[in-house]
Write a structure and sequence with these properties.
alpha/beta, 12 strands, six-stranded parallel β-sheet, 305 residues
Length: 305
């Protein structure tokens, strides 16, 4: 009887020990600016999937493009004992305080796609080369319009550095051609519906536009929808940025001219790998890691899915 009781206690102890080891598995939070955009869904799910493949628990948090919600997410995951954060910020300046809160309690933060304006907060920032990608978009834009015409620009979130890097790269080329005139520049918040409404308003004041450059593909699809409703989809050239599948299809159909192909899966995988290396003792990470952007036009759209 004593032997049976001893065996029972031993098995129970082993079970508790194994359970504690499972509970001790590091947890990774994936905090994304918004899941209301298929591109960011890919970024989020890829980051979580890669973290799980490396043996970690992973949970996705949606900030809904709202800095206050992002702050709540950070408070929640810090109090819940997460060990690393794969982070897509809502605001280049406003998000710094959240990253510093995590840093203060020893939680490393790896930014993906969007950066924060600080070099002493995030452990590393893995970012698309937005400026160079939009230089290529600008060159294609100039050629497609034969160096003349009126155009509108729909930019993304005003507080996001990607917005201005993309706009800056584009204008570094286009502004050299005086016969290309920007008749309007408005924010579409990287949102499809908002961009559609913005372009509808722009066209009321400027019915004769020749092209529209959009800071991401969700807005490019919104712009295309506005043009389609106005019966101008075959007259106004649309340019986007992201490499979203629906825009790639529109390029194949010759309904959108070009986009810049970003690689969210590369950024997500790199961030997860960095977190894994951090857990294993590495501390020396590059502050910014650029990820190349590729131009997609009708000439090569068939190569992309």
């Amino acid at each position: 009887m004593k032997k049976i009781l001893f065996l029972f206690l031993l098995l129970n102890l082993i079970s508790v020990s194994c359970h504690e080891k499972q509970d001790d598995k590091p947890k990774i939070a994936v905090v994304i600016s918004t899941l209301n955009n298929p591109w960011f869904v890919v970024l989020a799910e890829s980051a979580a999937e890669n973290a799980r493949k490396l043996g970690y628990d992973a949970k996705i948090f949606d900030s809904q493009n709202n800095p206050a919600t992002e702050s709540d997410n950070f408070e929640n995951l810090i109090s819940s004992g997460f060990d690393a954060i794969l982070f897509n910020p809502t605001d280049a300046d406003g998000s710094i305080v959240n990253v510093l809160k995590a840093k203060e309690v020893g939680i490393p933060v790896f930014c993906m796609d969007r950066e924060i304006n600080a070099d002493n907060a995030a452990t590393s920032q893995i970012l698309s080369d937005n400026y160079s990608g939009c230089v290529e978009i600008g060159v294609t834009f100039v050629k497609a319009l034969n160096e003349k015409g009126n155009y509108a620009e729909i930019i993304g979130l005003v507080g996001d550095n990607n917005t201005w890097a993309r706009s800056g790269g584009f204008h570094s080329v286009v502004d050299k051609f005086p016969n290309l005139k920007m008749i309007a520049q408005q924010s579409g918040d990287f949102d499809r519906n908002k961009a559609m409404e913005v372009l509808e308003t722009i066209m009321q004041a400027h019915p004769d536009i020749d092209a529209v450059f959009c800071g991401n593909d969700a807005m490019a699809m919104g712009a295309y929808q506005a043009l389609q409703s106005a019966g101008k989809a075959d007259k106004v050239k649309v340019f986007g940025f992201d490499g979203a599948s629906d825009v790639i299809e529109k390029i194949k159909e010759k309904k959108i001219v070009a986009t810049g192909m970003q690689y969210p899966k590369v950024m997500a995988k790199t961030a997860a790998q960095y977190a894994d290396e951090y857990f294993k003792g590495k501390r020396d990470f590059p502050q910014r890691v650029p990820v190349e952007v590729e131009l997609v036009t009708i000439a090569n759209a068939g190569s992309y899915q």
